[in-house]
């Protein structure tokens, strides 16, 4: 800081003894936020839920044909669930019939169950954040 320059009253503009711009402050805040997000991701990676998911995924990947079938099933189920209509339940029932060889396969079931549990954990974290910041999600109802 120059000799004749005066400091603003707001000390939050200082990092140590150095004056920082609002852009630098924003960058630091985003760095902190991203750092905390990485910590949460690391906690998830080390959780029993993720470890089971990763083991099931690796086991599924050993059978490329089964993996392809599981991914087709997941894609179709995702589409049905995200484009609901009056026939949604019938469509889901038909999907289970069409992909019975997939949904009844122990390796595929293990993977899809593990994936579902992991997704629930990720949704919990997202819901906590959305709730705490009071994010208006009512449009989804």
List keywords for this structure.
141 residues, mainly alpha, 6 helices, 3% strand
Description of the structure:
The chain is mainly alpha-helical and 141 residues long. 70% of the residues lie in helices and 3% in strands. A two-stranded antiparallel sheet has the order 1-2. It contains 6 helices and 2 strands; from the N terminus they run ββαααααα. It has helices spanning 22-45, 48-61, 64-82, 88-98, 100-103, 106-132; strands spanning 14-15, 18-19. Strand 1 and strand 2 (18-19) form a beta hairpin. Helix 2 (48-61) runs antiparallel to helix 6 and helix 3 runs antiparallel to helix 4 (88-98).
Level of helix content? over 70%
**How large, in whole angstroms, is the Cα Rg?**
24 Å
In DSSP terms, counting alpha (H) and pi (I) runs of 4 or more, how many helices? 6
Q: Return residue spans where pLDDT drops below 50 for at least 5 consecutive residues.
A: none
Straight-line N-to-C gap: 54 Å
Task: Give the overall shape, derived from the CA principal axes.
Answer: extended
Largest sheet, strands/sense/barrel: 2 strands, antiparallel
Give a count of the beta strands, DSSP E runs of length 2 or more. 2
The order of strands across the largest sheet is 1-2
- Range of strand content: under 5%
* Global structural class: mainly alpha
Order of SSEs, N→C? EEHHHHHH
Mean pLDDT across all amino acids: 87
